[in-house]
Amino acid sequence: MRKRNPIAFFSSTVNSPPPAANNAIDHLLRERTRLYLICLLGTLPPFILFLLPIVQQMLRIQLDFSTGRTVLQMPLYKTQKHQNLLKSTDGRTKFLQHCENEYSSPVFDFFDIIYVTKLYIGTPPQEFTVQLDTGSGDFWVLDSTCGQKGCYKGCTSNGAQWCNAQCDPKCCGQNGGGETTTTATQQVPTVTPAAQFPGFRHAETEEPPSCQNLSKFESQKSASYQETDMTFSIEYGLGFAAGLIGQDFVQFASDSYETDGLSVCNAYFGQVNQKNIQKVPFSGILGLALNASKQNVDPLFIQAYKQGLFEKPLFSLYLATQGNVNGTLGGVLTLGDVDDENCAPITDWIPITHNSSGFWEFQLDKITLDDGTPINVTSSAMVDSGTSFLLGPFDEVNNILRHYGVDPENRTMPCDKKFGPIIFTIHGQEYKVDEKTLLFDRGNGTCIVGLTTLESIPSWLLGDPFCREYCQIHDVEKKQIALPQAMKEK
Question: Where's the Peptidase A1 domain (predicted)?
């Protein structure tokens, strides 16, 4: 992959100031980007196209139907849920439960614990900080109705159980789901006066802590938003998220559609109105697995690839090690190619062994320790950028901890004591993770070992300590993954 500066992917003839939210269509037309108009044909209500001002604008605009594909690189930033989580038993328990044209986007790093990037949704674009998660396939952001049980299409089309759990009782009909009575529907107030684009309708309630102080998507402010009757729910190690699925422009890397961004037309994404994941510095999760959790919706990268935005069905994730710092540049997510600037050459492609699961899961040959001691392996493994530590089956993890003299009950040790390496053999090649990425300093001379277990976990989750040692190169077409050595920062 040749190194190039980000290019202006879309053409524009007019520079305009940021629009007011209620002037979204006018702003969209002034921008005059060919992607806006192409997407508009499939997103806005048909009568909109016959409005005289829009027809006049369409006749005057010269569209740039460039057929070139692109490679997008997104810088990443590292974040931390809350540093004091590491300094209490309860917090630590919760914490343990729980990468031809070139284009880039940053990844932010918070204390080597969470890696996030920025995305933009809607017209005009609304900015969101999302965690990168190769261990799940759903892309979602918080909705403006977070914590409120509203009325929307999915309430009456997904059965009584969903309706009673997620919707205002007035929307569920007398039978607790199914058909909604006309009287009940009329009793539910609208979000904003005369909202002309689809969105939630809800009764006002107090926002719960898990929804506070985070960016939320306001569908009524987006001219290109489409409501659907689909819903979703997903469970994580730290909790769950649930809501409905909408469609809109999703922009990688930039809040300006006309310059260095790349947009996915009619992208499906989750609008979360119920969740119990708390104390996190992000407003959503960008799932990068092969399949979404339950609904028949492709993950965002696959949606973009199917739209022809990328020539190669590849994305790469590089995570840097920045230590005890917050919000710094912490890696790169490359969409559409291999990141040969931050990753060593690929020496092996690892086949995915459980295609039906939708995860980047592969066979784990064996695990050995510093003196060659073997650990009995009975499971597969998957690389998971959304997991802060290494997670494995109960017996295997505890045997490793005891080998290095660490109590499995609290998983702490003096920071000056040796721990590691742990050597994973995958597809015949060895991948070593050492103490530099496995130990997290609590600030009092003791470290938490970044290795834990959940009794029910069936396979190894090779989380961020592994991801900082090895890049992840994913091939969504051939369903294979490469793990070249990460190039350390100079």
Answer: 115-484
